[in-house]
């Protein structure tokens, strides 16, 4: 069992969890992920590691309560545990001193972006961070991101906080203003956001890295459920990724693959909510 | 019991294996083959001619004294029969079920020349099941040697190696990347062919022998092999990581939704128990027109699992989404580019699949998969094949017949084209030589010693996808050599 040491709702639907997993923490590098299974009947789901503390032997995961598995995590209390935490998996982010870089994160992807941003900053880059969310109440960790950034822009879709804009707008402006000065862009968030970030940076010829969160079972290259189509062939997100050159990804196919099990996920959520209602009545 | 003459023995017909009826078993995941009764087993044992130079033993990868264990069974001494069996095979209940006896021991049986061979596998299973039913005794463990061995991978090779080393008094830790031990026996082979209770019962005494099991441990990532030998303090490492990497065809449409590797499909169904969704969280799609590409045992397992899921859904046991709720009849095809003669699956599995209603499309090869506007599989273009001259494998090479393309209506395609070793474990282990197929090169096939000091390997990671019994044999051989090394230091 992997013990849950800390748990905090950082927004109404976003949970930050600190989990005891010393062997995993010891090896974790920015950009890597773990496969988590809550209990014996649970699904194996991939989650990008949001932070890690090698001395304390912990990793931090941030999830949004959108499916049955993540809703179930919401019910876990400190001292409870996860049946399985497998990792670190995937390749670490390629971090070096590139010069000026832009880190764009949308929604709860602020979490996995944090160790990458920190790593880039520590490597000597001039880091420009762009944070986006639908509205103010979905924003979190602005302070953490800001503390490891040289420039910092927040936008919300509805204008309830920061600039009223999609993340692609400031991204485009920065590229227009600074031209070749920007050496690399990271974009992590919902697939649709990453797709549009890729479309925004492509005309500028700036290498853009995205972190994909596809459906996986084992996370070690065994099932191939996570495969993604790049221009020069298919890759497994689990062992070849999770980071890829955004300009190579077939986004529409990727998004279709991500939603293949939507009806089953919906059924699982309904069943879970029904169970919770019954428990509340009892 | 009066001794039978050879003539009398020859006159006893081979006993059919009692099995669930096809119509019934299509709607459940319970074991198909039910096992001999004691009476049947003893009668079948009577068929064995007790050859002085038994050719069947030569056919067995681990050289079980087959006439010996059958003779003891015939004499009513099951204890002795089991002892003979277990002296060479630690996993008889598993091997009795999944070994390809018809190409190993039984094909060599003298009886097979004129009639049917002795049902060696079924007798092996009978004895093993009898042992499991009474509750297997804890094996004796030698005095601790103080030596530590890391076994990587909890499949048949690793488990066998671990058990043998533990019995010899070594401290053994098994590192497994999945959450449960068993390897392909658990994630790959379905319940209806190999019940997981049987697997775990047969593994059972590992813990009581002091073997430590570490799940969730992806060697190559969590620890490298060098770290196991260094800071983690192990004296030797055995790699039994199997052949877990799936192959996909290089044809258009291969990444559409609904094209799955057999590994993914079977892992969802077996390891994650998707056939019990939503009680278990992992879903699997149940489709109406399924094509399984390939004709090995994994293909048969996939096809027969798909068929069962379809019947479970039709019976209302598995929930149906709006798209799947159609009343269209269920069709599961095996699509194979060669002819029935070359089918690599066991005859028994093919026979069971046919009985259950699986449709076989021989000399047929997919060339393109069609997707609808949501990137879901909606058809498959195939081409007819003909057989030419024998290729490297000795089998006649299939070549496409020009202009013979045709379309198949399918909504799910499962690729069962074989697997290769997962390279993850070799990260940061460049001094471990591997072939161009990704398999580990061993210095000596008899011991499994690799080019990396203190590292042994065995099973599919060395041979490429093969059989449970050969993996088990390799695990056993390596355990012997590791023991020799640990005690002699060379």
Structural notes for this entry:
The complex is a heterodimer of chains A (282) and B (490). Chain A has 282 residues and is α/β, with parallel strands linked by helices. Chain A has two domains: 2-89, Beta Barrel (Elongation Factor Tu (Ef-tu), domain 3), CATH 2.40.30.10; 100-258, Rossmann fold (3-Layer(aba) Sandwich), CATH 3.40.50. Helices cover 31% and strands 31% of the residues of chain A. In chain A, the strands form four sheets. In chain A, strands 12-11-10-9-13-14-17 form a seven-stranded mixed beta sheet, with helices on both faces. Chain A has a five-stranded antiparallel beta sheet with strand order 5-6-2-1-7. In chain A, β5 and β6 (58-64) form a beta hairpin. Chain A is globular and about 60 Å long. With 490 residues, chain B is α/β, with parallel strands linked by helices. In chain B, the strands form five sheets. Chain B has a five-stranded parallel beta sheet. In chain B, strands 6-14-7-8-9 form a five-stranded parallel beta sheet. In chain B, α5 (66-74) packs across α8. Chain B starts with 5 loop residues before the first helix and ends with a helix. The model of chain B has no long low-confidence stretch (mean pLDDT 92). Classes of the chains: A alpha/beta (282), B alpha/beta (490). At the A-B interface, α1, β8, β15, α8 and α9 of A face β5 and α14 of B.
């Amino acid at each position: 069992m992997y013990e849950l040491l800390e748990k905090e709702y950082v927004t109404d639907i976003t949970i930050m969890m600190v989990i005891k997993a010393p062997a995993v923490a010891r090896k974790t590098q920015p950009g890597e992920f773990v496969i988590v299974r809550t209990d014996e009947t649970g699904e194996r789901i991939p989650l990008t590691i949001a932070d890690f503390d090698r001395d304390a032997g912990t990793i931090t995961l941030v999830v949004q309560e959108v499916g049955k598995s993540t809703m179930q995590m919401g019910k876990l209390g400190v001292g409870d545990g996860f049946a399985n935490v497998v990792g670190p998996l995937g390749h670490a982010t390629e971090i070096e001193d590139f010069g000026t870089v832009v880190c764009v994160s949308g929604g709860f992807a602020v979490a996995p972006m944090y160790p990458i941003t920190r790593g880039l900053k520590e490597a000597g880059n001039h880091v420009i961070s762009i944070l986006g969310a639908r509205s103010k109440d979905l924003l979190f960790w602005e302070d953490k991101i800001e503390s490891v950034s040289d420039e910092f822009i927040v936008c919300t879709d509805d204008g309830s906080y920061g600039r009223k804009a999609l993340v692609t707008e400031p991204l485009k402006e920065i590229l227009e203003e600074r031209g070749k000065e920007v050496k690399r862009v990271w974009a992590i968030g919902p697939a649709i956001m990453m797709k549009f970030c890729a479309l925004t940076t492509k005309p500028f010829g700036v290498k853009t890295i995205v972190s994909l969160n596809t459906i996986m079972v084992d996370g070690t290259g065994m099932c191939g459920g996570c495969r993604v189509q790049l221009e020069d062939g298919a890759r497994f997100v689990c062992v070849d990724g999770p980071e890829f050159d955004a300009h190579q990804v077939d986004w529409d196919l990727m998004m279709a693959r991500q939603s293949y099990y939507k009806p089953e996920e919906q059924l699982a959520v309904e069943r879970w909510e029904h169970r919770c209602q019954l428990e509340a009545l009892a | 019991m009066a001794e039978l003459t050879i003539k009398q023995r020859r006159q006893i017909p081979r006993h059919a294996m009692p099995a669930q009826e096809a119509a019934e078993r299509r709607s459940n995941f319970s074991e198909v083959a039910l096992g001999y009764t004691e009476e049947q087993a003893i009668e079948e044992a009577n068929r064995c001619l007790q050859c002085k130079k038994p050719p069947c033993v030569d056919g067995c990868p681990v050289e079980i004294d087959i006439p010996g264990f059958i003779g003891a069974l015939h004499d009513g001494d099951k204890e002795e029969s089991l002892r003979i069996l277990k002296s060479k095979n630690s996993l008889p209940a598993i091997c009795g079920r999944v070994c390809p006896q018809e190409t190993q021991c039984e094909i060599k049986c003298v009886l097979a020349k004129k009639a049917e061979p002795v049902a060696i596998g079924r007798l092996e299973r009978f004895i093993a099941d009898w042992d499991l039913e009474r509750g297997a005794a804890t094996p004796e463990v030698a005095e601790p040697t103080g030596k530590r061995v890391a076994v990587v991978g909890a499949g048949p090779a690793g488990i066998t190696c671990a058990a043998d080393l533990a019995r010899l008094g070594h401290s053994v830790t098994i590192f497994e990347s999945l959450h449960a031990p068993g390897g392909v026996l658990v994630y790959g082979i379905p319940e209806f062919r190999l019940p997981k209770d049987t697997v775990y019962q047969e593994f059972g005494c590992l813990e009581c022998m002091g073997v430590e099991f570490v799940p969730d441990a992806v060697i190559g990532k969590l620890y490298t092999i060098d770290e196991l030998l260094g800071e983690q303090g192990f004296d030797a490492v055995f790699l039994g990581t199997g052949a877990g990497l799936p192959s996909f065809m290089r044809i258009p449409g291969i990444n559409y939704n609904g094209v799955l590797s057999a590994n993914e499909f079977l892992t969802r169904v077996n390891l994650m128990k998707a056939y019990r969704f939503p009680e278990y969280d992992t879903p699997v799609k149940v489709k109406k027109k399924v094509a399984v590409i390939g004709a090995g045992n994994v293909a048969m397992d996939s096809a027969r699992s798909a068929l069962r899921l379809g019947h479970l859904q039709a019976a209302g046991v598995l929930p149906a989404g709006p798209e799947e709720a159609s009343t269209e009849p269920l069709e599961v095809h095996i699509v194979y580019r060669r002819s029935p003669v070359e089918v690599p699956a066991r005859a028994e599995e093919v026979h069971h699949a046919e009985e259950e209603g699986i449709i076989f499309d021989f000399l047929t090869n997919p060339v393109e998969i069609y997707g609808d506007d949501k990137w879901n599989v909606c058809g498959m273009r195939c081409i007819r094949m003909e057989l030419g001259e024998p290729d490297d494998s000795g089998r006649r090479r299939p070549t496409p017949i020009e202009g013979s393309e045709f379309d198949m209506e399918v909504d799910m395609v499962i690729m069962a084209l074989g697997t290769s070793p997962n390279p993850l474990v070799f990260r940061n282990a460049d001094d471990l030589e591997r072939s161009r197929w990704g398999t580990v090169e061993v210095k000596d096939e008899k011991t499994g010693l690799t080019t990396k000091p203190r590292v042994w390997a065995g099973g599919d990671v060395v041979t490429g996808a093969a059989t449970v019994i050969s993996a088990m044999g390799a695990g056993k051989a390596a355990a012997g050599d590791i023991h020799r090394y640990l005690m002699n230091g060379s």
